[in-house]
Amino acid sequence: MKPLLRLEHLLKESGPAPDRPGWLALLLKRPGLWTFSARFLRNKFTPLILDRIRGLDVPLEERARLFNQAIAHINVGETYKTSGPDRTRLVDQAILAHAAKYSPLRFLEVGVSDGTASLNLLRSLPKGTSIRLTDRHPVFFRKGRFPVTRLYDGDRRLLGVKILGLYFNVACCEPSRAAGLAPIPTLNPVVRAEAGVEDIERFDVRLDAVDQPAHLIKCANLFNCKYFPAETIRAAVANLGRSLAPGGLLFISQNNARYTDGESYFALQRGPDGLVLVEEKNGHEAVDLFRHGPLPVEGAP
Prior knowledge:
7-stranded mixed sheet
């Protein structure tokens, strides 16, 4: 990040960060207070709030709701880990329509944030399904305690420093070599309790591949043509193909109000020559990148 952009980021993403679940709950009940807090008080949230929510003595549903809202307002460099229950309903239905074809099914989802967007899908997958949830930042890290705490992303890059109640988001580009970093998991407690998933694995869609290819892969709200050039998207999808078993399907979806039903998706199937477009709904903005013949799978013979 260039110095001027780094300074702009610091000014925009820094501010007071109480990181108290009670404060978050109050803001959720009063939208006007939330607007005032964010716009004029410049209220921020850091990963520290996640462990505090996880430890609350309240019903699971309330912890899940607060956790999901908190993680969606934690800045990770230049992005946010947005999520939300049942936001990918259409693509989830499409995945379930194919799930029975594979026994036992191996299911992989990339870019899951806290996992709640797929909770209903995970509950409905056939018994015995192998489920792997992944994200670029499956954990945050912390070092130190009050009054000074340093916070890191999943790549161990310094996100920011919290001094007393003030958070300075610096978004460092280089991984830290600091020892003794304590992890802060991003898996929503309701996903662990109701879907039996123990953790979110680290996975970079541009570089990584799983050791056992999946039959069905879900990739939601990740490939945005406004943020990524066409060739970057095609290269990342080709790399994802390495994690797809022959004949398997890769579902790519996006939520946006301009789409019918607020959602669109398309599916690519891995054939002998690469990934081929076989299904689409509601005109996903990236679907035209995959209409013209098979996309060779990176690293495939």
